[in-house]
Design brief:
Blueprint (H helix, E strand, L loop, with lengths): L17 E7 L8 E7 L5 E9 L5 E9 L1 H12 L18 E5 L3 E3 L11 H21 E4 L3
Antiparallel strand pairs: 1-2, 1-5, 2-3, 3-4, 4-7, 5-6
Length: about 150
């Protein structure tokens, strides 16, 4: 009698995977703070916060954690709201000394290729709110010390 097998479960594709990186200060070679979140909008996400200190930024502390599905979905929606916002590789146009990038099927990087258009006050506030949210997720969710 032939053996029947059930189909293998499909691994999730990386088509929907996103990557968020927040770095302070804006133009640092070695940022004093870096928050990286990798996930998918309908799944949990991984978060890693790296803090550097010392005279030459040689001391490093890393914390890891995860975002639940709802936090991941909210973050993805917020980041998609930055679509089309102004960017400039040489100037912190938002005045927060913060670089924020988002990569998925679309890309946003306020320190990336220059885009045209005037920055509106609404865009400035939206950008600040998104940065505040990413930093809050870093404080609240990345609590487990990681080996460097």
């Amino acid at each position: 009698m032939p053996r029947t097998t059930s189909p293998r479960p499909q691994r999730p594709t990386i088509d929907n995977e996103y990557n968020v990186v927040l770095e302070k200060p804006f133009a640092a070679t070695f940022p004093s703070k870096r928050i990286e979140i990798i996930g998918e909008p309908n799944r949990d996400a991984q978060i890693k916060v790296t803090k550097r200190s010392g005279e030459h930024m040689q001391d490093m502390t890393v914390y890891e954690g995860h975002l639940d599905r709802e936090d991941s979905r909210e973050l993805y929606a917020m980041m998609n709201g930055l679509r089309g916002f102004p960017a400039n590789p040489n100037k912190d146009v938002y005045g927060l000394d913060t670089r924020l990038s988002f990569t998925t099927d679309m890309q946003f990087d306020n320190g990336g290729e220059e885009t045209t258009g005037e920055l509106t006050e609404e865009q400035r506030y939206t950008f600040r709110d998104v940065c505040d949210s990413v930093e809050a997720l870093g404080r609240l969710r990345a609590r487990r010390p990681s080996a460097v």
